[in-house]
Amino acid sequence: MVLTLLGLFILIALTASFSGAAEDKYFSGDNITVNLLLDANKEAPAELQLMIYNPENKLIVNGTKEFDLEEGENQINYTVPFITDMDGLHYIRYDIFADLDGGQTLVQSSTQYFDGEINDPPVIDLISPEMNSIYSPEDEILFSANVSDPEGQKTNISWSTNVSGIIGNGTSFYSNLDSVGTHKITITAEDEMGAESNQSILIEIAERNDQNAISTGKGSSGTGSTPAITNPSENDGNEAIPSGSDEQIDVPNEDVGSDETQNIPENEDERGFLPGFEAIVLILGLLFATGVKRRGI
Questions:
Q1: Which of 154, 93, 124, 120 is closest to 28 using CA atoms?
Q2: Claim to verify: residue 113 and residue 7 sit in the same structural domain
Q3: 151-208 pLDDT, tens per residue?
Q4: Do 20 and 192 form a contact (C-beta atoms < 8 A)?
Q5: Is residue 242 part of a domain?
């Protein structure tokens, strides 16, 4: 379209610099470039003012660029970042001012609508390592995650630890961590337009002890494993029960020191209880009588 205004012949075209966006659709984070082709019949200082409004008619981008118009054809390019927090129909307005009579005069104004959308960050599904897992410095740890972007953009994925920094890049790889202690592992995913998301977990790196078990050094409250300690029994001819054994010793149910009398019938006759009592009395009587005769009594 050619417009004649105050001696200026102006042809205006609008394009977007983000090659991945669909025609007339731009995501938050895109760079929008305005390409202006101006045909002027005189030299003059000029200024471009560019404004972008969201669906609620709120100004979200405002930028200016000063340039000098030359007689003939002028190519003017101006790029602004498009940042929005709303989906829907946005519009861009650009005004051109020229110094024609010692002051800036609006010589051209135009508006163009386009579809703007929020750029959602990548979605992370962490697979490995798991929260609070324990490894030794020699272990090759699997770092793995599924990452997707709602807009289908390419993503850059990095893994890091608060102890030693960057671990590696990508969705799946193996690596070991040398530093003993608690590590905060963070995976970060960033799409082509700068939208970023991250996820963090804690893992423990601990040395192995002489029994090849991982020991965290936390005592009974730790999550590491330590070998069981048993007391060896001495060979003294009797079978000994090691400390901590599950073997049980049977103890009689009768209470020690009980008042209960064992094996005594409750209603036993006293004569039956002392068998041969009468015979003993008879023998003692005979012995007594014999002694009396010998003494001449």
A1: 120
A2: yes
A3: 888 999 999 999 999 999 999 999 999 999 999 999 999 998 888 999 999 999 999 8
A4: yes
A5: no
Chosen domain end from 216, 236, 251: 216
Pick from 91, 117, 143: which residue ends a domain? 117
Between strands 196-205 and 134-135, the pairing is parallel
pLDDT beneath 50: ranges in the chain: 1-22, 218-273, 297
Residue 165 in contact with residue 183, Cβ under 8 Å? no
Cα–Cα distances in angstroms (integers) from residue 105 to residues 12, 40, 99, in the given order = 18, 15, 6
Torsion from C-alpha of 288, 294, 296, 297, nearest 10 degrees: 0
What CATH number is given to the structural domain containing 81?
2.60.40.2550
pTM of the model: 0.48
DSSP of 115-129: EEE--PPPEEEEEES
Domain count, the chain: 2
CA atoms of 119 and 21, how far apart (whole Å):
11
